[in-house]
Amino acid sequence: MLYMGSRRRFRDLTEQEVLALAISSEEDDARIYRGYAERLRADYPDTAKVFEGMALEEDGHRRALIDLHQTRFGEVIPLIRREHVAGFYARRPVWLAEALSLERIREEAENMEREAERFYHMAAQNAQDADTRKLLGDLAAMEAKHQDEARRLEQEHLGDEARVGEDDRAKRQFLLTWVQPGLAGLMDGSVSTLAPIFATAFATHDPWTTFLVGLAASVGAGISMGFTEAASDDGELSGRGSPTKRGIAAGVMTTVGGLGHALPYLIPHFWTATTIALVVVFIELWAIAWIQNKFMETPFLRAAFQVVLGGALVFAAGALIGSG
Fold it and tell me: What keywords tag this UniProt record (predicted)?
């Protein structure tokens, strides 16, 4: 493990070490871009070509930096990397790309080039030696050219039609993997727990008992919904994405939907807790209708009517059973 105290300060690096750091950074960036390309190749081939081209550009700059090092300092390049230098810009681990959206990966690549250019500019301004200042300025110019080259590659491989098509596929994948299971979970948690929670409330008039029943119902429904969603479809044929992600979305939102109107019963006064719980239920049902309208393109009034009607029927059943 590398501790902050063991890191070198950038201003303490020699010109040779700065050059070696630039070489290792270019090599790391090329690997990251190739990782992005591999991650996107199956679903977004045009964007994958852009990242492959960016990786080739990084390879070219790395070779140029190595040639410069050989000319000035010889064949032996010091082993120094980003993590060895305090305050040097960090990179997101490649494996985290699995959790990033297509647009977020594109933004990440832009940020990579922008951070490198900014760092070299700042370092050049603080450098005292004229040769070192020139070297850092050249490195900043290289990073700026990277951004221009990235835009050129996008124009070459990712025209407007291809980009729109890939964006549409990314949006559809987001809806299938996260929004649809999450919405189903929120509906299930918000509606299905109404009956046991309010039946317990009106039967006992005991807020603490009602809260415990609501907590158990919410957590149990969340676990059940999460496992059901994950086990129902591996995503290979349907294209709905990772069953783990879908299961998490469904399970978490189911639990949240139930806890929303269970938590008010932590208030010891029964009618105050019940009134707040009813307000929360109303907000939950309208939130579901809004999500259906925004992401699933369901007409708002129709979505609101379906959700509110279903919730009202379940609530009425719970209240009647509890009162009886």
Answer: Coiled coil, Membrane, Transmembrane, Transmembrane helix
Q: What is the CATH number of the domain that holds 14?
A: 1.20.1260.10
HSE (CB half, 13 Å, CA atoms) of 108? 20
| Chain centroid, CA 188 distance in Å | 25
pLDDT at 147: 61
How far is CA 65 from its chain centroid? Answer: 34
The domain in which residue 271 lies consists of 166-323
Q: For 213-264, how does the pLDDT look when each residue is reduced to its tens digit (9 = 90+)? A: 999 999 999 998 888 888 877 666 556 777 888 888 889 999 999 999 999 9
Closest to 318 measured CA to CA, from 170, 203, 153: 203
Locate 177 and state its tokens.
């993997």
Closest residue by Cα to residue 249 from 203, 291, 202: 291
pLDDT for res 210? 93
Using the 3D structure, point to which of 104, 139, 158 is the last residue of a domain: 158
Domain count, the chain: 2
Asked if 25 contacts 59 with a C-beta cutoff of 8 angstroms, the reply is: no
Q: Given a cut of 90, is residue 143 above it in pLDDT? A: no
3-class DSSP state for residue 85?
strand
Residues 110 and 197 in one domain: no
Measured CA to CA, the distance from residue 210 to residue 63 in angstroms comes to: 69
241: left (phi over 0), alpha (psi -120 to 50) or beta: left
Band the pLDDT of 1: cuts 50, 70, 90.
Answer: very low
Q: Check pLDDT > 90 for residue 206.
A: yes
Average pLDDT estimate for 115-141 = 75
Q: What does each C-alpha distance from 293 to 12, 79, 261, 296 come to in angstroms?
A: 58, 55, 23, 6
Q: Same domain for 203 and 63?
A: no
